[in-house]
Design a protein that fits this description.
The chain is mostly helical. It has a single domain (about 20-215, about 225-450), classed as MFS general substrate transporter like domains (Growth Hormone, Chain: A), CATH 1.20.1250.20. About 75% of the residues lie in helices and about 0% in strands. It contains 16 helices and no strands. The chain has helices at about 20-25, 30-50, 55-80, 90-110, 115-145, 150-180, 185-210, 225-235, 235-265, 270-295, 300-315, 325-360, 365-395, 405-415, 420-430, 440-455. α1 (about 20-25) crosses α6 (about 150-180) and α10 runs antiparallel to α11.
């Protein structure tokens, strides 16, 4: 896992990263995203429809698993900041977590007959925490690769772009295995697990070998109490965390309910793969557009505008019904355009917020900050599952029947679309006047470099 230090240009600063570095860094995100598709989209309805576990039980089990996972993030973040090894701070975590992900994914996608809530809970906890032990250090590693406000967006763009490529592949696999392998409902899960299970152990060593870690930046030492006070005083962090949490719930609800909406409201189960593919493909294709806009305008304004665009499009979903596949396809493509900004800009803004903390704390605590954002993400996912499934059951919705009542279907449509729209609007309100732009971030980095060079203590 050793790698060369970052190269420097003639003036002593870091060189711009190459496309090869972008790809090598981002490629592990592809199989991780492929694993996430069955976990978030296919496994809940599969366990409900094929194994007979109630929606309320699945919601409770997955919520508990995500809460445990969320509790692990601060531990992983702090340790990955503090434990500096001969291979770096981030790379050992990525290497060690890989086999646990592979085993847990196999168990979840191929449950033995009679598997129940406890089985789902145990293996969900394993794969959630193992994935966190990989993705958190991987994200922190990317945030530290560049000091430049705009180049950070390109790093995140490649990582998240490859994430969506993995998602797209995983959405195509179920259609292919069903077409050529039969109607066994377990085949799509197995197909995705095989693809991701091959790609993950190939991509991880490639990334660890090809991409350097940035040198540890530390020019002051503070005890943990003072460090926590600095975190809380970081206004950009608080704003981004709140917007991240609200937008995370807004994105998680449609992801959790997509299969149910397509099957029971649109009656378009045969088009699920094509609809998902259209949505994510539009997101990938739109990324260059959002990068151009973010270079001309501030990241936070562009991100806020993209969320408003998504709200405008998604507000039409409750008017859809049986057979409106073409209309929903159009909505998927147009709302997917907004996904491109959602993929790239918040992650880039996170690195800028860490700079503000580094200036005051004297330490580059990227792992801690990404852990706190990760907790927000996990809680948003837990909230989406924990709220949506029990509420659907309360409204009389039954995933195992084909003809639910109008009230149950309306409740599903509102949870799928209108609730996310409201949450995104609240997120835009929080982020619209975000205090860090390109000019202020450049000043922060200059002062960090000066203090780091001089050894000046904050």
């Amino acid at each position: 896992m050793t790698s060369p230090p970052p190269a420097e240009n003639d003036s002593g600063g870091p060189r711009a990263l190459t496309i090869g570095t972008y790809i090598a860094y981002g490629i592990p995100a592809l199989p991780i995203a492929a694993f996430a598709v069955p976990i978030y989209i296919y496994i809940p309805p599969f366990y409900a429809q094929e194994l007979g576990i109630s929606l309320a039980a699945i919601g409770t089990v997955l919520t508990m698993a995500r809460i445990l996972d969320a509790l692990s993030w601060p531990v992983i973040g702090i340790l990955s900041d503090r434990l500096n090894t001969r291979w770096g701070r981030r790379k050992p975590w990525i290497a060690f977590s890989t086999p646990f992900i592979l085993v847990a994914a196999l168990m979840l996608c191929m449950p033995p007959p009679g598997s129940g809530s406890l089985y789902l809970f145990i293996w969900s906890v394993v794969i959630y925490i193992a994935s966190s032990a990989l993705t958190l250090p991987h994200s922190a590693w990317g945030a530290e690769l560049s000091r430049d406000y705009h180049e950070r967006s390109h790093i995140v763009a490649w990582r998240e772009g490859l994430t969506v490529v993995g998602t797209l592949i995983a959405t195509v696999i179920p259609s292919l295995v069903t077409k050529y392998g039969g109607d066994d409902p377990q085949l799509p899960l197995i197909g995705i697990a095989v693809f991701a299970g091959v790609m993950l152990p190939l991509s991880i060593p490639f990334a660890l070998r090809a991409v350097p870690e940035a040198p540890v930046l530390r020019f002051a030492e503070k005890d943990w109490r003072a460090g926590l006070r600095i975190v809380w005083r970081n206004q950009p962090f608080r704003l981004l965390l709140g917007a991240f949490l609200l937008n995370g719930v807004a994105n998680s609800l449609p992801a959790t309910l997509f299969l149910l909406f397509a099957t029971h409201v649109l009656k378009a189960a045969d088009y699920q793969g094509a609809l998902l593919f259209a949505y994510f493909a539009a997101g990938v294709i739109s990324v260059p557009l959002w990068l151009i806009l973010a270079k001309r305008y501030s990241k936070h304004r562009v991100w806020g505008s993209s969320m408003l665009w998504a709200c405008l499009i998604f507000a039409w979903v409750p008017f859809l019904g049986h057979g409106d596949v073409l209309a929903f396809f159009t909505i998927s493509v147009l709302s997917g355009i907004g996904l491109g900004a959602d993929m790239v800009l918040p992650g880039s803004m996170q690195a800028d917020v860490v700079d503000a903390d580094t200036l005051e704390s004297g330490e580059q605590r990227t792992g801690l900050y990404f852990a706190l954002w990760g907790v927000a993400t996990k809680l948003s996912l837990a909230g989406a599952v924990g709220i949506a499934f029990p509420l659907l059951e309360f409204l009389g919705f039954d995933a195992q029947i084909t003809s639910n009542g109008p009230g149950a279907l309306l409740g599903l449509a509102l949870l799928y679309s209108i609730v996310p729209v409201i949450l995104k609007i609240l997120s835009v309100i929080m982020i619209w006047n975000f205090p860090i732009d390109a000019e202020s971030q450049s000043r922060i980095r200059q002062e960090i470099e000066q203090r780091s060079t001089s050894g000046h203590l904050v």
